[in-house]
Amino acid sequence: MLVDRMKKSDDYRFLLLISVGCYCGLRLGDILQLRWEDVMHREYFEVMERKTGKHRKITINSGLQEIILFCHQNLNAIRSITPEQHIFINKTGQPLSKQFVNRRLHVIFVQYRIKVQNGSSHTLRKTFGKRVYQMNNCSESALVLLSSIFNHSSISVTRRYIGLSQEQISNVYVNL
């Protein structure tokens, strides 16, 4: 919903950052290292996760590919883009800082009335997890898959990570 609403704005860089976060489930540090050549006109890209050292191959689905092309076209019209350039850069051409991204995401969440507790870049990764879980009928196998993707030690960690424990507790009170 946020992605669709942001398409009408001119904040193409953050539209793309939010999309990559929600479609790929990467940590912000890994997203900020992406270059245009990694994602343009490709079916997948590979990343070595900085935190875990784990190698991941991420398939780019058609919805994300459309957003990448849309954002590239609009950003290229503003400032010439080279394939080897980082996607998420500041005015001096350096990759955005995590602090700046998190401050800007907080503003975006407020601006678009997205209700999240402690909204930050991690919200995007958790959104990816929640979407995968729901698209797989909230199954145990979805939690196993997410546990592997997130490199969690157990599915109970994954369950807490995507907020299932608190959601289930809240539902107990609602359904009394």
Summarize, please:
This protein is mainly alpha-helical.
Fold and architecture overview:
The chain has helices at 2-6, 12-24, 28-31, 36-39, 62-78, 98-111, 121-135, 140-150, 155-161, 164-174; strands spanning 44-48, 55-59. With 176 residues, it is mostly helical. Strand 1 and strand 2 (55-59) form a beta hairpin. Helix 2 (12-24) runs antiparallel to helix 5 and helix 2 crosses helix 7. The protein is globular. The two termini are 31 Å apart. The model has no long low-confidence stretch (mean pLDDT 91).
How is the secondary structure organized here?
Layout: H1 2-6, H2 12-24, H3 28-31, H4 36-39, E1 44-48, E2 55-59, H5 62-78, H6 98-111, H7 121-135, H8 140-150, H9 155-161, H10 164-174
Antiparallel strand pairs: 1-2
Radius of gyration: 17 Å
Strand order of the largest sheet: 1-2
Structural class: mainly alpha
* Relative helix content: 55-70%
**Assembly type of the shown chains?**
single chain
Q: How far do the termini sit from each other? A: 31 Å
Report the sheet-strand fraction: 5-15%
The biggest beta sheet reads: 2 strands, antiparallel
In the predicted model, the low-confidence regions spanning at least 5 consecutive residues are none
Please tell me what the overall shape is: globular
Name of the CATH superfamily of one domain: Intergrase catalytic core
CATH C-level class of one domain is Mainly Alpha
Series of secondary-structure elements, N-terminal to C-terminal = HHHHEEHHHHHH
Q: Which fold name is given in CATH as the topology of one domain?
A: hpI Integrase, Chain A
Mean pLDDT: 91
